[in-house]
Amino acid sequence: MFHLPVSVIFLYSIVAAAALIYAPFLVVGYARFSLGYDISAPRTMFDKLPPYAQRATWAHQNSFEAFMVFAAAAMMAYVTGVNSPWAVVAAMAFVVARLFYSIFYILNIPILRSLMFAIGGLGSATLYILSLIQASS
Fold first, then answer.
1. What is the pLDDT at residue 1?
2. For the chain, the helix, strand and coil percentages under 3-state DSSP, each to the nearest 5
């Protein structure tokens, strides 16, 4: 069976989370080109986008915000040498939750979107806590 060191999982999770920032934007791009992309004023197209593409835009924007919090938490865990199964679960849970967050946002399922937001936030918070515990010991 293939096993990665915990520290490497933190790094891969940061890369995966960064890539997920742009997943909802693929949906926005599809909608823009379906409408006739205006290269001279791409931001003015927002009001013309169908609701699913507007939600995809919001998911994309929220992904930047969540990524900053998570990346700092994962880097803290990496730097402090956290080596815990809970940390692995937290990092992986964040990535999976953010994938489903965007899907549920685009599909307009607010309760599941909110649940995924909470799971992602809990993943980041867990990494912060474990890092602080590790740094204190």
1. 42
2. 85, 0, 15
Is the Cβ–Cβ distance between 30 and 54 less than 8 Å? no
Tokens of 121: 């936030």
Site of tokens 């590790």: 134
Give Cβ neighbours of residue 127 (< 8 Å, ≥ 6 apart).
70, 73, 74, 76, 77, 82, 87, 90, 91
* C-alpha–C-alpha distance, residues 23 and 102, integer Å: 8
Q: What is the mean pLDDT of each run of 10 residues along the chain (137 residues)?
A: 76 97 92 77 77 94 97 97 95 98 98 98 98 94
**What is the per-residue pLDDT for 18?**
97
> Rounded to a whole number, what is the distance in angstroms from the first to the last CA of the chain?
32
CA dist., res. 106 & res. 98, Å (int): 12
Q: Which residue has the tokens 């912060």?
A: 128
Q: What angle do CA 125, 10, 111 make, to 5 degrees?
A: 45
